[in-house]
Every structure is written in structure tokens, then in C-alpha cells.
């Protein structure tokens, strides 16, 4: 991009401006950033719902694991469309656990104290964990319908029929 500067600023001496420094930076490889986002979201879900026996790196194949330790500006080989069925099974089980834990946390707190979702998750206002699990399913190459069906089944099993119908 072209940066127009006023004449008064041309003769100024000192450190390089932050805009010039930003323009000199290498561009990031966006799919690698998305890959890191999936890991961060996975780790946050494990922490948020205290999911036991979930090994976050088991959700990724060898290419995916290697990509975590590379510079974000490098172009890395990311997992292709063909995945190991065992990894896909582990991913599906993880997403099902997240949805189950989110519904259980929401329903148990609402029944106990009649607390709204915003009060239950004050730092997560507007964050709908089941919807986030569906979004993660797309990144993890899992059928979104499986996650949605499980969500509806969980709502019905906790007596939230009105939400399940929606």
C-alpha cells in the first residue's frame, strides 16, 4: 500500500514508525493460523468443561502435529482430505463430549438456581458451545449433522424439549 506522508514528517528523525514495521512483516499462512485456532479452541473446551482422558494432540495426524511447531509465515503441509478413520473417530468422540458437557453444565445450573446462560458463563457472553462444536466439526472433517443430532438428543434427555424442537 502507498502511504502518503505530510512534508513536516519527512524530516523527522527517530525510530521507524509502527506502520512501516508492520508493512515489512512477512504475511502469515492463513490455513496454519486456522489450524492453531482449532488447537486453541480444543484446549479451551477441555479446560472449560474439565474433560478427562482427552489428549488434544491425538485429534491431529502427524502432519497436523508437526505444523504446530512451525513459524506462522511458513507454508506447511497441512492434513489433506484423506484421514485415518481412527483419528476421525477420536475427533467425533471429542465433539460429542463437548456438546454433552455444555448441555449438562447449562441444564444443571438452570435447574438448580434458575440461572441464565449469560450469568453462568459471564466471560463467554454470546458463546454457544454446541454451535462452536458444529463449527469445529467442519475444521476437523466430521459431519456436522452428527454433532447437531447429538445436541438435540442431549437437550431431550435433560428435559429441554422446547430447545430440542427448535
Strand and helix map with partners:
Layout: H1 7-10, H2 18-24, H3 30-48, H4 62-67, H5 85-113, H6 117-120, H7 129-139, H8 144-157, H9 161-165
Helix pairs in contact: 5-7, 5-8, 7-8
Textual characterization of the structure:
This is Rab3 GTPase-activating protein non-catalytic subunit. The chain is an all-alpha fold. The protein is 60% helix and 0% strand. It has helices at 7-10, 18-24, 30-48, 62-67, 85-113, 117-120, 129-139, 144-157, 161-165. The mean pLDDT is 84.
**Mean pLDDT, rounded to whole units?**
84
- Record field, number of beta strands: 0
Helix content: 55-70%
Distance between the termini: 48 Å
Helix and strand pattern: HHHHHHHHH
Low-confidence runs of at least 5 consecutive residues = none
| Beta-strand content | under 5%
Classification by helices and strands: mainly alpha
Q: Can you count the helices?
A: 9
Report the radius of gyration as a whole number of Å. 22 Å
Rough outline: elongated
Describe the sheet with the most strands. Answer: none
InterPro entries: RAB3GAP2_C
Protein name: Rab3 GTPase-activating protein non-catalytic subunit
Pfam families: RAB3GAP2_C
Organism: Eudyptula minor
Amino acid at each position: 500500500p502507498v502511504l502518503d506522508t505530510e512534508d513536516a514528517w519527512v524530516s523527522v528523525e527517530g525510530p521507524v514508525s509502527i506502520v512501516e514495521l508492520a508493512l515489512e512483516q512477512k504475511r502469515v499462512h492463513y490455513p496454519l493460523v486456522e489450524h492453531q485456532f482449532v488447537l486453541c479452541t480444543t484446549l479451551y473446551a477441555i479446560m472449560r468443561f474439565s474433560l478427562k482422558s482427552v489428549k488434544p494432540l491425538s485429534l491431529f495426524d502427524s502432519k497436523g502435529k508437526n505444523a504446530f511447531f512451525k513459524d506462522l509465515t511458513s507454508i506447511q503441509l497441512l492434513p489433506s482430505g484423506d484421514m485415518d478413520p481412527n483419528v476421525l473417530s477420536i475427533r467425533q468422540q471429542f465433539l460429542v463430549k463437548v456438546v454433552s458437557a455444555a448441555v449438562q453444565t447449562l441444564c444443571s445450573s438452570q435447574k438448580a438456581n434458575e440461572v441464565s446462560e449469560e450469568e453462568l458463563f459471564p466471560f463467554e457472553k454470546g458463546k454457544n458451545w454446541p454451535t462452536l462444536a458444529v463449527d469445529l466439526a467442519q475444521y476437523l472433517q466430521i459431519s456436522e449433522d452428527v454433532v447437531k443430532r447429538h445436541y438435540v438428543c442431549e437437550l431431550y434427555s435433560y428435559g429441554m424439549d422446547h430447545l430440542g424442537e427448535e
